[in-house]
Automatic annotation (TrEMBL):
It holds the Pfam family DUF4097. This is DUF4097 domain-containing protein. InterPro entries: Toastrack_DUF4097. Residues 104-228 form the DUF4097 domain.
Length: 284
């Protein structure tokens, strides 16, 4: 089925069907809102532009693929709109997504979730019940990644604050490992895993503040590569040996380092490893 919309005004498109949906946008098509729901089939969207505060893609057992999406909700009355993408059983993949004054929530129940090349000035959330979450080249004020039993991996994540709030990177895994590389963060990094290993690698000279790590039964380390120019001040470990803390690129004797940023890493059973700087000059 081919749908042609009038161009004299922006309209919303609503599709509710049991068959697969393929929506290919164009340079001349701008929607006020988009809602696509299907029970057992897949959804494919490409080159879609939304200038409004309504965006919903939902399927029970099909896959969802988005390649090229722009949502600009800066002219709406809502302070931060929420775009939703959800598949209970299928794979969810989003590539080349740009957000303006719009939060994004992506959920999958039993299959993998993949982000790539996403920029936003708001809150980006990814949730999975039992599968892998993989994110790549994501920029936002606040990034949240949560998985119950799957691993979480990410590369080139950037979190920056605004005039009201510090940036925040929040990662929660129950039984999976967490591995994040080439992280640029100004603000808070909060990562927890009940039983998995945590590995966080920060780009050199991009974070300033305090760090704290704890593991009940795993090993803990903070280390610098040959390409790190960060200044680390390690405080004495806790009496029971289960905690490490200190400061990075901030002197706690003369500054309130918590006001600059805070890293909190905790695993009950897994190792905790904090790495400053890349293994090569270009981080390849």
């Amino acid at each position: 089925m081919e749908v042609e919309l009038p161009q004299d005004q922006r309209l919303s498109l609503h599709i509710n069907t049991n068959t697969s949906v393929i929506l290919n946008g164009s340079d001349t098509m701008t929607l006020q809102g988009l809602s696509i729901t299907t029970m057992q089939s897949s959804i494919l969207c490409s080159d879609v532009e939304i200038q409004g505060d309504e965006f919903l893609l939902g399927t029970t057992s099909g896959d969802i693929t988005v390649d090229g999406l722009t949502i600009d909700a800066s002219d709406t009355l809502v302070a931060e709109s929420l775009a939703k993408v959800h598949s209970a059983l299928g794979i969810v993949s989003l590539t080349d997504v740009t957000l303006s004054q719009c939060d994004l929530l992506v959920e999958t129940g039993a299959s993998s979730l993949v982000f790539s090349v996403n920029t936003g000035r708001s809150h980006i959330q990814a949730k999975s019940s039992s599968a892998l979450i993989s994110v790549d080249d994501v920029q936002a004020n606040w990034i949240s990644l949560r998985s119950k039993t799957g691993d979480i991996s990410g590369t080139e994540l950037t979190v920056e604050g605004n005039s009201a709030f510090m940036g925040r990177l929040e990662v929660m895994a129950v039984s999976g490992d967490v591995e994040l590389k080439e992280i640029t963060a100004s603000g808070t990094i909060h990562v927890e895993s009940a039983s998995g290993k945590i590995t966080i690698q920060l780009n050199t000279q991009t974070f300033a503040g305090m760090y704290y790590m704890r593991s009940e039964y795993g090993a803990m380390s903070i280390r610098q590569t040959n390409y790190s120019s960060d200044v680390v001040v390690e405080s004495a470990d806790s009496a029971d040996g289960l905690e490490k803390h200190g400061s990075i690129n901030c002197d706690p004797a003369t500054n309130n380092c918590l006001a600059f940023g805070n890293i909190y890493l905790r695993s009950n059973l897994g190792d905790v490893d904090l790495v400053l700087g890349c293994s090569t000059y270009s981080c390849d």
